[in-house]
């Protein structure tokens, strides 16, 4: 190939993949090249550019950490960085904190940045999530996350970090959660143009999620054919109406799904517990929620090897679960990769299964939020379920991303793996 000539445009999928690093370098000298490239090549370059940005951000953090070692006054360094980089003092301070945490407590996470696998924004989900841990426990979390986060989005990394941090220090996590709950407050922020913001801060996650689901359910019921307000506008009006008049809809209970293993429920261990739509909460908080007067317990049977739900218990105060409800309980969130919208506010829809011979109803019915349900129906996107239950989403440029509900418990070794361990011992 003559490197002096840019690749020619093509209306078909290219049969030969050109090195994205070469294309990135070529485009840096000739920005007009993007008009001549196929969408697949542009996507390759976008991904390559992201890796280059991550490496440069890592280099910048190494420099900031080096400056911090040479400067005794942290605030003075932040002020200088703010001037040099044209950023705020707060942003400069956050960079210094991230640089110190990554170089001293989270070297493996920094290594992911060094090789271009993790950008600063996602890395800061790890630094923020381990801020309250001791250096020793932070390094344990760093080891656990090293092979799990390079292909995850910021929300997934935040949740993985919270879970790993709670596992590393369950007692500290419980104390921190209780302290944060004691800081709950309602805040009023006046804005221009006759509007203001009312927020409920540091409130119990299970109550906030239940309150939002109730507001959302009432708002959707008011979306009639003659309704001119958007769903967001209706939600706002319903919330204010409930606060001011205690009206807005019929009083009813709202479900918030809490996934807790039996031993944690009985107090025999302190594993983090998943609250759908929020993430993980400490075991002590989960036991407090489970002990509530209106709590309904249901048995879930999981596969001991992979932690996936395979059966929902029939005995509770309502009729047995049908396929639709089973799918929501199993999925917990929208099945589109990286989407954290609770399954209780999603729709369930049939999805093509690769192995149709052995497929059951529950194999093909998956939960999707409205946004990703519309995306699934586009002809240039492909959603397909494999025999092992993984959803594979293929984008218009040929990139495939897998999605499977996170296991409800740590995966147990198979008999083959146990045999290999015994032989190795």
From the N-terminal CA to the C-terminal CA, the straight-line distance is 54 Å
Q: Secondary-structure element sequence?
A: HHHHHHHHHEEHHEHEEHEEHEEHEHEEEH
- By helix and strand content, what is the structural category? alpha+beta
Helix-residue proportion: 40-55%
Shape: globular
Report the β-strand fraction as a percent range.
5-15%
Number of strands: 13
Which segments are poorly predicted (pLDDT under 50) over 5 or more consecutive residues? Answer: 7-15, 314-320
Describe this structure as you would to a colleague.
With 425 residues, the protein is α+β, with helices and mostly antiparallel strands. The chain has 17 helices and 13 strands. It has helices at 20-29, 39-70, 74-85, 89-104, 107-114, 120-129, 135-145, 154-168, 170-181, 205-221, 231-245, 262-265, 283-290, 323-331, 361-364, 370-376, 415-424; strands spanning 185-190, 196-201, 258-259, 273-275, 279-281, 300-302, 309-312, 347-350, 352-353, 365-368, 382-385, 391-394, 400-403. The strands form 5 sheets. Strands 9-11-12-13 form a 4-stranded mixed sheet, with no helix packed on it. Strands 3-4-5 form a 3-stranded antiparallel sheet. A two-stranded antiparallel ribbon has the order 1-2. Strand 12 (391-394) and strand 13 (400-403) form a beta hairpin. Helix 4 crosses helix 5, helix 6 (120-129) packs parallel to helix 8 (154-168) and helix 7 crosses helix 8. The radius of gyration is 25 Å and the shape is globular. The termini are far apart. The model is unreliable at 7-15 and 314-320 (pLDDT under 50).
């Amino acid at each position: 190939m003559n490197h002096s000539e840019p690749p020619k445009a093509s209306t078909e999928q290219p049969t030969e993949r050109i090195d994205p690093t070469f294309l990135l370098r070529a485009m840096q000298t000739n920005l007009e090249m993007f008009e001549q490239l196929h969408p697949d090549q542009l996507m390759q370059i976008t991904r390559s550019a992201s890796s280059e940005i991550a490496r440069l951000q890592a280099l910048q953090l190494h420099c900031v950490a080096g400056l911090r070692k040479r400067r005794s006054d942290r605030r003075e360094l932040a002020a200088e960085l703010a001037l040099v980089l044209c950023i705020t003092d707060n942003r400069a301070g956050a960079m210094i904190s991230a640089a110190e945490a990554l170089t001293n407590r989270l070297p493996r996470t920094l290594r992911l940045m060094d090789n271009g696998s993790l950008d600063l924004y996602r890395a800061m989900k790890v630094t923020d999530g381990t801020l309250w841990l001791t250096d020793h426990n932070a390094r344990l979390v760093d080891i656990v996350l090293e092979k799990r986060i390079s292909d995850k989005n910021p929300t997934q990394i935040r949740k993985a970090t919270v879970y790993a941090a709670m596992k590393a220090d369950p007692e500290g996590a419980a104390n921190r959660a209780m302290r944060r709950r004691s800081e709950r407050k309602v805040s009023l922020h006046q804005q221009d143009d006759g509007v203001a913001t009312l927020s409920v801060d540091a409130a119990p996650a299970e109550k906030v999620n239940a309150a939002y689901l109730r507001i959302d359910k009432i708002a959707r019921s008011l979306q009639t054919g003659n309704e001119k307000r958007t769903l967001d506008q209706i939600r706002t009006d319903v919330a204010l109406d409930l606060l001011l008049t205690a009206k807005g809809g019929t009083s009813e209970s709202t479900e918030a799904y809490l996934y807790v293993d039996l031993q944690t429920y009985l107090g025999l261990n302190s594993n983090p517990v998943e609250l759908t739509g929020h993430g993980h909460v400490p075991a002590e908080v989960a036991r407090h929620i489970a002990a509530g007067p209106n709590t309904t317990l249901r048995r879930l049977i999981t596969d001991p090897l992979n932690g996936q739900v395979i059966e929902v218990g029939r005995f509770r105060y309502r009729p047995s679960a049908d396929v639709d409800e089973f799918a929501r309980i199993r999925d917990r969130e929208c099945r589109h990769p990286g989407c954290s919208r609770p399954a209780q506010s999603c729709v369930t829809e049939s999805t093509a299964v690769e192995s149709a011979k052995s497929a059951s109803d529950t194999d093909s019915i998956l939960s999707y939020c409205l946004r990703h349900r519309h995306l699934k129906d586009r002809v240039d996107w492909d959603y397909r379920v494999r025999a092992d239950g993984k959803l594979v989403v293929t984008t218009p440029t040929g990139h495939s991303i897998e999605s499977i509900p996170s296991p409800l418990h740590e995966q147990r070794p198979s008999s083959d793996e146990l045999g290999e361990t015994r032989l190795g011992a």
